[in-house]
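Troubleshooting log. The previous structure file for this entry was overwritten by mistake, so regenerating from the original sequence record. Sequence copied from the archived sheet and checked twice against the printout by T.R.
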Amino acid sequence: MKTLYLGIFVVAALGAAEAPVVAQPGSTPYLKITAGQNAAIVDWPTNATGFILETASSLNAPVNWKAATNNFAVAGTNLEITVPGPNAPVFYRLHWISPGSSAIVAPAKTWTWVTFTNAYCMGGTPLGIGVNLNTNSSNLLIFLTGGGACWDETTCYVLDNATQGPFGQAQFNALVPGLQLAWICNRAAPDNPFKDYSFVYVPYCTGDVHSGSQIELYGTNVTMHVGYLNMAAYLRRLVPTLPGVQHVVLAGSSAGGFGAVFNWAQTQKAFGNARVDVIDDSGPILPASVQQEGYGVFLPTGEASLHWDVNASLPSACASCPTDYETLYDYVATAAPAHRSALLSYTQDTTIPQFYGITASEFLTGINDLGASDFAPYTNTAYFFYNGSGHTFFLSTSANETQNGVTLSKFLNEMVTNSAAWTSEHP
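Regenerated output below.
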C-alpha cells in the first residue's frame, strides 16, 4: 500500500499530551495537539486534502489503526476534534490515502474502467470503478454491487463467504455485456427512469458491505475491510468529474443495499446541495429484536461491526445510530426531508435470512417491522415488498415485478420524479 504517515502522537490520561513525533509544518499537513483540563484538542489544516485521521491504542505490532472520520468540526482554518481524556494512551496519525481529486476523463456513454491507486480489495489488490457518463445529464446513478460478507478467518478464508477479488480491468470487461442488459443501466428501456443518467458501477471485494474502515489480521491474512474508505476515494474524483450534477441516486443490491444506506451521509456531504436519494435493494438493516434471534453479527456489538469498524461510517449527527443501526433509515429521512429513500425486498428473500442466521418467518417479521417503524412514518420514504421468492431486483433485465397492480419500474419512476402518487407497496 502506498502510504504516508505524518504527525504520530499520543494523547495520555486526563488529556496530557506529548508533542508530535513527526511534525512538518508549512505546505505539508501536520497534526497539532493542545492539552485541556479533561480533554485534548486535535487539529490539522484543512489543506490536508486526501488525508484521514487514524487512531490506535498501541504501537505494538501488529498495530490496528482505525479511521476517525467522524465527530470533527471546522474550527477556523483547521479541522478539529475534541478527545476526552482516556484511561490509556491513544495514538493518532494522518494517513495519506489520495493522490488528488482529478476529474475522470472517459468517452461519453461508454463503459470505462477507472483504476484507483487508493482503493483496495480485502487482499490489498487495487480496485476502481466503472463509469458510463452522460455529460448532457445533471443526474447520476451510483450502483454498489453485492457479494457476501465476512468477519473472521473462518468466514473469509475457510467458508469464502465474501467476494475477495482481485477485481480490475479484465474482471470489469467480462461484466460489461451483462451490465448493458441490466434494467437500471439500459438506456434503451423506455420504463427505466435512469436511462439518461450518468452511471457509476462500484464493485465489491472488501467483505464489509461497503461500510468498513479497518484492516484486520486473520491468521496470516492481512484483510482490508475498507469499503467505506474506498467510497470516500471514489467520491473525491466523482464530484469534480460531474460538477453540474443536481440529483444523485445512490443504489445498491444485497451487500450494496446495506452499503447505500451506510454511505448516504458521506455521499450527500460530497455532493453538497445536490439531492442524494437512496435505494436499498435487498439489504435491509433489520430490527435488533429480530437480529438477536440469529447470529447478531450485524448488531453494533456484533462480530461484523467490530471487525469492520462500522461506527466510522455513521454520521455524527445521528445520536441513535451507534447503538441501533436500523435508525440510519430514520436519519436519512429526517436529515434530508426533500430527498427520497426506498427499500426493496422479496417477502421470501433467499439470501438475507442466512446472513442474519434467522428463519424465513423471522425475516418476514423483520422487514414488516422495518417498513412500519422506519418508512411508514415519513412522506419521503417508501418500500416495495414483492410477494415472492428471490433476492435482488436491480441487475435483472426487467422490472416487471408487480405488487398491488404497481410494477417496480413504476414505483421507482414515481420516486425519482417526485410524484405525489408514490407510496409503499406490500402484500
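The first strand starts at residue 5 and ends at 11. Archived copy saved in two places this time.
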